[in-house]
Amino acid sequence: MVxxxxxxxxxxxxxxxxxxxxxxxxxxxxxxxxxxxxxCGKTTTLRCLAGLTTPTAGSIYLGDYDVTDVHLKNRxxxxxxxNFALYPHMNVQENIGYPLKVAGQDEKTRNxxxxxxxxxxxxxxxxxxxxxQLSGGQRQRVALAxxxxxxxxxxxxxxxxxxxxxxxxxxxxxxIKVLQRELGITTLYVTHDQEEAMTLxxxxxxxxxxxxxxxxxxDDVYHEPNNQFVAGxxxxxxxxxxxxxxxxxxxxxxSGGISDFQAELDQTVAARYDEYDSFRLGIRPQYxxxxxxxxxxxxxxxxxxxxxxxxxxxxxVVVGLxxxxxxxxxxxxxxxxxxxxxDDIWLSIQDALVxxxxxxxxxxxE
Length: 366
Ligand code: ATP
Prior knowledge:
Helices cover 26% and strands 32% of the residues. It is built from nine helices and 19 strands. Bound molecules: adenosine-5'-triphosphate. Adenosine-5'-triphosphate binds at residues 13, 16, 18, 36, 38-44, 192.
C-alpha cells in the first residue's frame, strides 16, 4: 500500500489544457473518486498516474518515490477500464492468471492465485469457461480479478461499470467497495456519475475545465460545496438557483413573484447574507414543500411536469414573477400529494438548508 501525491500537475495537448495545476493527496488505502463532466480532465489525470502519458509540468509520487518519469511497468499499478479487453483465446483462469505469467510465475502458483481472487469476486465456478460464454457482469469480474491478482500498490479504474445495466452496476459497485475495503489497496476511480462517486468514494475530487473545484468527503461536497459548479453538479436533481437582491428594508426585493417566499427567506437568510446587496440562492429540490391550496409564505406556480419516483415525485413548477419573468423550480415532494400537469400549486421553503453564492465568481458565500 502507498499514498499517491500529485504536485502542480499540468497536461497540455497543444492548445488544450487538459489538466490545470492539479494538487491531489490520496492516503494509503483510501478510495478516491475523480468526478466531473465529460472532457473535464479526469481520464488524463488518471493516465498521468498510470504512466500512459507524461505531465507537461509537475510531479507525481507513489509514497515518497517520484514516478513522474518512471516507466509504467515499474509503477506497481493495476488498471481496469470501461472497455477492458479479455484475451479471447484463453479461458477465465488463464485470463486471470496472465499477469503472473508475464511476471514469470509457474502454472501451479498462477492457478492457485487465480482461484483465490476468483473467489473474492465470486466467479470460482467459471474458471474453466471460455470468456465468450460470459455475461457482461461476469466479464467485468474477470477483469477485476485479473487486475487484483498481482496485489498492486494502487488500483486505477476508469468508468469500469459504464457498460453494465443499471441493476448490475449497483451490485458491482458494492462488490468493488467491499473488495477495496478488504484489500485496503489505494484506489483512484474515474466516473462522471455522481451517485456512483458518492457511494464509492472516501474522498471525492471534483473537476471542471481541467481544474479541481473541490476535494472532500461525500458529505463535505454535498453540504458545503465550494462553489456553484459543485453545488449544481452534486445532488440529483440539481440544486435550484434563484438570484435575489435585498431592498432597503432588508427584505428580499427581487423576483417579485417570489416575494411570497419572503417571510421564510428573510428569516432563513437575512442574518447570513445581509452584507451582500445581491446574491444567488441555492435550494435543493427536497427542501421545498408543496401545497395544493394557497398557503401563507408559499409562492403560486403551475406544474409543468411530474415524474413519479416511487415514494416521492419530482415536479417542475413555473413560478410567475411580478415583473413578467418566470422562474423554473424543481421540487421533490412526497407522492401522497396529488398533482398533475397544469395544476396550480404553492411552494414554500421547508428547510433552512439553503446556500448563497457570489453571482460573479460563483463562490459560496458564508
Ligand atoms: P470523459 O468523461 O468524456 O472521458 P474526461 O473528463 O476523462 O472526459 P479527458 O479525456 O481527460 O476528459 O480530456 C480532457 C481534455 O483533453 C478534453 O478536452 C480532451 O478533448 C483533451 N484530450 C484528451 N486526450 C487528448 C489527446 N490525446 N490529444 C488531444 N487532446 C486530448
